[in-house]
Amino acid sequence: MLAVAGVTMAASTAVLADVVVKIGFAGPLTGPISHVGKDEQFGAQLALEDANAKGVTLGGQKARFELMAEDDQADPRTATTVAQRLVDAGVKGVVGHVTSGAAIPASRIYEQGGVPAVTPSSTTPKLTRQGFKTTYRVIANDIQQGNAMARFAVDVLKAQRIAVIDDRTAYGQGLADALVDSLKQRGVKPVGREFTNDKATDFAAILTKLKAAKPDAIFYGGMDAQGAPLLKQMKQLGITAKYLGGDGACTAEMIKIAGTAMSSDVYCTQAGIPMDKMPAGKAFNERFTKRFGVPVQLYAPYSYDAASALIEAMKLANSAEPEKYLPLMQKVAFKGVTGNIAFDANGDVREGGVALYQFNAGKWEVRP
Prior knowledge:
Layout: H1 2-16, E1 19-27, H2 34-54, E2 56-58, E3 61-71, H3 76-88, E4 93-96, H4 100-113, E5 117-119, E6 135-137, H5 142-156, E7 162-166, H6 170-185, E8 192-195, H7 204-211, E9 217-221, H8 224-236, E10 242-245, H9 252-258, E11 266-271, H10 281-292, H11 300-317, H12 322-325, E12 334-335, E13 340-341, E14 354-360, E15 363-366
Parallel strand pairs: 1-3, 1-4, 4-5, 5-6, 7-8, 7-9, 9-10, 10-11
Antiparallel strand pairs: 2-3, 11-14, 12-13, 14-15
Helix pairs in contact: 2-11, 3-4, 5-6, 8-9
């Protein structure tokens, strides 16, 4: 009798035990833009902690979500290795990758493995135009950013002599290309187009060449790790052109690194809307800061929504198995931290906004 009771108790315990659901995260956790990667890692972590606190039941068992974070170093080759490692580890979904250069090669691994991946910050249009069923994005793309910056530069700043530099990454070049295309639609041809790389620190040759073209604005497509030194060297060479950047330069780290080179003629676009305009932005930043001891850097709210999108699809399917919930990603619809989250046929978020910022009084301020 006791033995039977023991068996019965063990079986009951097994039924009630939480089922662990591993969610992968991939981004640069070391290197010059690790602050962006960690920001997104923390955003995904907070989403999983919130889901665990609320309690999610899948297939009759309470799910306990755990994050498996991998460092792709913002490197395309490393990204494929990381992606394969996550797939082999049996993750049920992935938040990432952070950069476009890493997201594109990794996306093929997730497609082959049948694992849904939602990027919070890869903005290249190419990512979601590969025909992959597992690729999703919760933020606006480069085409929208390029249009916004071109319109602002020409119509508001009245800039006509615009030079363009990019770091030759999928992200930086994609954003620069989008800007150039939008400028051409407005009858403005760049007075110079130069290239660097995402490891560079010396931009003297490029800037000296562009200075001779007498630009009234210089756009840089890339991240803050290069964007800030570039700005400092512009000032050192006496270049008075306005500085324009994308979301990679729209960070607190940009202000920190550039220091006194920052001025009111420095502008940037950011995919998405300002945190204080997000439906739950203010509360999110307060909770995020309390939990991790640092304020939101850039994309943490989008990372939170990316993780939440995976969980919402699992809830719709009543299963964490990718083959069961992947078909329901197209039916995901919820109010996230950043706004309404729902995807189009390509996997892009349906309502992707763009905000424009100007540096003023020590911080980024939203331009109307």
